[in-house]
């Protein structure tokens, strides 16, 4: 790849050039990243060990938490480390690898959110056939299809970018390598690539959002025939998922449903869906009573087990 490009590395301008602000951001984003890792690990471990959280919904939630950890880990560690150095560089190969990983895990999350919406639709609109339709085999294939679809999407974005010549300057006005900032550095006409990127990333985000909105409209309409207790339970189940969808899809559509035009808000919007949303997801889902009760039961059992072991050791 380096033989076809004059740029063997890129300089990332980061979120800010202010040294004092970068020190504050280092502490803040390090805290955010720790919360992302611990919060999503807590979700994964609780679902894995709890006998009560064995429904398809929590099967998908476990994978969503895993994707959140991977997704934030693509950009957050590099961002945090760059706050401590004056010259923020990344190799060409490292930049392309980061581009691939960002779109791979980001698109996987989009497809998983769609799968989770379908799961909620079946659970609420066809409850008698739920376990037959959403059996373990089907759920596993849905997860595999999400990974495969994201891989194809990411390969398209990556291959398009690597074919472009980069003659300089090599400064990326961002804190990680993404398609639009890289297209601005290419020393050739990128109109066609721009159109393909918008059709690929933007239309995936928009079309998936439309499908999600339609599915939840159908769910809300079907709730009219339910009892008040059943309606409240169904709404509580859907509320957390709708919140996550809004937080994730809104910024994605803002970034990718337009040509490579830079706005001053782009960096902060990107921070929101690459770091803030993975951090908020565990909080949103742990507000559900089933998850909270499972966590209390699981961790109280673990504490009692540790206490019993300590008492036995003392005797």
TrEMBL record:
Q: Does the keyword Cell membrane apply?
A: yes
Which residue positions does the secretion signal occupy?
none
| Record domain G-protein coupled receptors family 1 profile: where | 39-285
Q: Which UniProt keywords apply?
A: Cell membrane, G-protein coupled receptor, Membrane, Olfaction, Receptor, Sensory transduction, Transducer, Transmembrane, Transmembrane helix
The family database entries (InterPro entries) matched by this protein are listed as: GPCR_Rhodpsn, GPCR_Rhodpsn_7TM, Olfact_rcpt, Olfactory_Receptors
Kindly list the GO CC terms recorded for this protein. plasma membrane
| Its membrane topology | Multi-pass membrane protein
- Locations listed in the record: Cell membrane; Membrane
Family named by the database record: Belongs to the G-protein coupled receptor 1 family.
Protein's UniProt name: Olfactory receptor
- The organism is Gopherus evgoodei
Record lineage: Eukaryota, Metazoa, Chordata, Craniata, Vertebrata
Recorded name of the encoding gene: LOC115651584
């Amino acid at each position: 790849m380096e033989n076809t490009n004059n740029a063997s590395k890129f300089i990332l301008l980061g979120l800010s050039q202010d040294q004092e602000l970068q020190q504050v951001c280092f502490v803040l984003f390090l805290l955010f990243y720790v919360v992302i890792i611990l919060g999503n690990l807590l979700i994964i471990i609780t679902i894995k060990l709890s006998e009560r959280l064995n429904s398809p919904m929590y099967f998908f939630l476990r994978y969503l938490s895993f994707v959140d950890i991977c997704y934030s880990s693509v950009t957050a560690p590099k961002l945090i480390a760059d706050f401590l150095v004056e010259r923020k560089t990344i190799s060409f190969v490292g930049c392309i690898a980061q581009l691939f990983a960002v779109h791979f895990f980001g698109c996987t999350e989009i497809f998983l959110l769609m799968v989770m919406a379908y799961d909620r639709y079946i659970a609420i609109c066809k409850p008698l056939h739920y376990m037959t339709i959403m059996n373990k085999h089907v759920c596993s294939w849905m997860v595999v299809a999400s990974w495969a679809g994201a891989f194809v999407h990411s390969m398209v974005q990556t291959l398009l970018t690597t074919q472009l010549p980069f003659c300089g300057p090599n400064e990326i006005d961002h804190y990680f390598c993404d398609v639009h900032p890289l297209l601005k550095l290419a020393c050739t006409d990128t109109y066609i690539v721009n159109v393909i990127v918008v059709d690929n990333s933007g239309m995936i985000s928009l079309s998936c959002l439309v499908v999600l909105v339609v599915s939840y409209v159908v769910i809300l309409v079907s709730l009219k025939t339910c009892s008040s207790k059943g309606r409240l339970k169904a709404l509580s189940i859907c509320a957390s998922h709708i919140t996550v969808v809004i937080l994730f899809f809104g910024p994605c559509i803002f970034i990718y449903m337009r040509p490579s035009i830079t706005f001053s808000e782009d960096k902060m919007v990107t921070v929101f869906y690459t770091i803030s949303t993975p951090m908020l997801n565990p909080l949103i889902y742990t507000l559900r009573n089933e998850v909270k009760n499972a966590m209390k039961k699981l961790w109280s059992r673990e504490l009692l087990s540790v206490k019993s072991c300590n008492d036995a050791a003392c005797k």
